[in-house]
Amino acid sequence: MAQHIVIIQGHPDPAGGHLCHALANAYRAGAESAGREVRALDVAQLDFPLIRSKEEFEHGKPPEVITEAQNAIHASEHLLILYPLWLGTMPALLKAFFEQVFRYDFAFEPQTNGRFKSRLKGRSARIVVTMGMPALAYRWFFRAHSLKSLERNVLKFAGIAPVRESLFGMVDQASDERRQKWLAQMQQLGAAGR
Fold first, then answer.
1. Separation between Cα atoms, residue 88 and residue 81, nearest integer Å
2. With contact defined as beta carbons under 8 Å apart, do 119 and 107 qualify?
3. To which H or E segment does residue 77 belong?
4. DSSP label of 166
5. Distances from the Cα of 182 to the Cαs of 10, 26, 78, 126, in angstroms?
6. Is residue 144 helix, strand or coil?
7. What phi and psi, each to the nearest 5 degrees, are found at residue 101?
8. Closest to 81 (Cα-Cα) out of 123, 44, 127, 38
């Protein structure tokens, strides 16, 4: 069970107050009540530029705020990543954050044979996605494209496994009772460090 957890809040609204924020807070409360150490990274509060070239991605120096995020992830055993589904994928700000964080020499290391060595093994993750459509439609009809891309092309490529997911659909129409169940579920997951 993970003792050191990093929560990556991917909702791009710096004002907060969205379901993603409530879910993260519930998870954190559960984790801390079980004696786990939790560090939160609110992507909307971080100031960093976009990566605009291959050269910059491969050899550029990350901004200090990104280095701090990398240090937190490196010290963790488990990541909780939350985001709302926007236009079928994660918000652009979160994607830009992952491009900055998961660079060469942090997430993976190029080998001379053209392969890559994963550098973040020994960590697990949970991805939480909120959406306006039914979660079942996202999973089966749309094949959970953004979720699978983040899981395979970023996290597992860097060595993070297992990666679990929690999908919350029809969030705009959810009753208070349903939202409370979701929050309780997240609190239990936090307490379990999963």
1. 17
2. yes
3. none
4. E
5. 18, 9, 20, 15
6. coil
7. -75, -50
8. 127
Cα 42 to Cα 39: distance, rounded to the nearest angstrom: 10
Q: Which two tokens stand for residue 90?
A: 């994660």
The count of residues in the chain is 194
3: helix, strand or coil: coil
The label of the residue with tokens 């996605």 reads 129
The domain made up of 4-192 is a member of CATH 3.40.630.40: no
Taking only the tens place, the pLDDT of each residue in 68-85 is: 999 999 999 999 999 999
Query: Helix (H, G, I), strand (E, B), or coil: what is residue 118?
Result: strand
Contact predicate 90/10, CB 8 Å: yes
CB 127: neighbour CB atoms within 10 A?
24
Look-up: residue for tokens 């100031």?
47
Q: Assign 13 to helix, strand or coil.
A: coil
Query: Stretch 32-55: mean pLDDT, rounded?
Result: 97
CB 167 within 8 A of CB 139: yes
10 pLDDT tier (thresholds 50, 70, 90): very high
Alpha-carbon span 3 to 31, nearest angstrom: 9
Q: Which two tokens stand for residue 122?
A: 């020994």
Give dist(CA 101, CA 69) in Å, integer: 7
**Does the pLDDT of residue 112 top 90, yes or no?**
no
Residue 175 contacts residue 14 (beta carbons within 8 Å): no
DSSP state of 83: E
